[in-house]
Design a protein that fits this description.
The protein is α/β, with parallel strands linked by helices. The chain has 16 helices and 15 strands. It folds into two domains: 267 residues, Queuine tRNA-ribosyltransferase-like (TIM Barrel); 104 residues, no CATH class. Helices cover 43% and strands 17% of the residues. Helix 7 crosses helix 8 and helix 14 packs across helix 15. The radius of gyration is 20 Å and the shape is globular. The protein starts with a strand and ends with a helix. It binds one RNA strand through helix 2, helix 5, strand 13, helix 12 and helix 15.
Amino acid sequence: MKIKYYLKKKEKNTKARLGKIETNYGTYDTPMFMPVGTRATIKGLTPEQVKECGSGIVLANTYHLWLRPGEDIVKKAGGLHKFMNYDGPILTDSGGFQVFSLAKNKEKDITEDGVFFKSHIDGSNLFLTPEKSIEIQNKLDSDIAMSFDECPPASASYDYLKNSLERTLRWAKRGKDVHSNKNQALFGIVQGGPYKDLRKFSATETVKLDFDGYSIGGVANDGESKDDMYKAIDYSIPYLPEDKIRYLMGVGDPIDIIEGVIRGVDIFDCVLPTRIARHGQAFTRCGKINLNNSKFIEDFTPIEKSCDCYTCKHYTKGYIRHLITTKESLGGSLLSIHNIRFLIKLTEELRDAIKNDCILEYREKFIKEYSQKK
RNA sequence: GCGUCAUUGGUGAAGUGGUUAACACGCUAGUUUGUGGCACUAGUAUGCAAGAGUUCGAUCCUCUUAUGACGCC
């Protein structure tokens, strides 16, 4: 069976909504945050540890798994769930985001048929098409496949975005036509940068193709302003059906998640919690802290006393700083646990706020606390 | 006791008679939003063992002292 979305409640004062999704690997509430496990692993964590953070769906990447170990190997292993031992739903990104950043010459390498680019592993010349991306995802047997789209940079012009999203629509159709995994949902992706008419066009045309869910892409890009990100959401959401999931791709800054939820987004994914963790930083209610900082050398208190994660229950900032500065991998793992739990807890609280119709108050309180510099 | 060679930041070290003493590590701080890359960016010796001299000018030349390594009685 494919995943199903049920809208449970709409918040009174905003577009925020409470929902649930039924999958072959359990039922989960939305809004939800999806940890990122690009190469079929959330870096440094076991699936059990990820689950203990309260995870639902996790994300893996088509491009990376295509190159290594190859979709046929994953299929032989019994599919992605068995291969990586994750007993929960998995979404695969199409690889578009990676491939476009690896294409050297945007004019020449991005063709109507597909994208030419060089492998990041050995530099070999490769070619990925919408059909190929979907076929790989079919074999990986994830629960949700993403359409192969172009994710243009924030600096792209109106004309570039217009042409790009039209091609992305044609690619979406081509991908849908070859999609054959009956247990796998397929999502379409809305593009169009911060432009109202482009977003409207992209959204309505994508919806006409009738996907199982819709995502808002092209955000959280190099140097894009917050304002443009919020515009991209605001201009897309009104044209998306209420009975389908809305996924904001790549967003994971705590404040952006709140702003996204208020604007009607259901799911998010982001490398931020795990990446900053490996670089020594932790989310806290009072903003990010950097465990590399020497002021934590003799700090034998948890990252956050009030946090219910495994890391905060058992380890101190002084110890984690020691692990980080000595480049012990456990440091990144412990911080990843905390950061993932932080974002998942945030979505749990947002769900409560939607239930109680007080999400605007929640946002004000959260931002006030988060923005104070300690 | 005599001779030779050395002495540059927290560490390993480049280097030149003339504006800001290379580089690396470390340290300090920042960045990170559909993860190629535990990465990237920035700062970090007002001083080149100490003192004196030569010179318009010395970390780089000369002398003395100190410390160290090696060699010879």
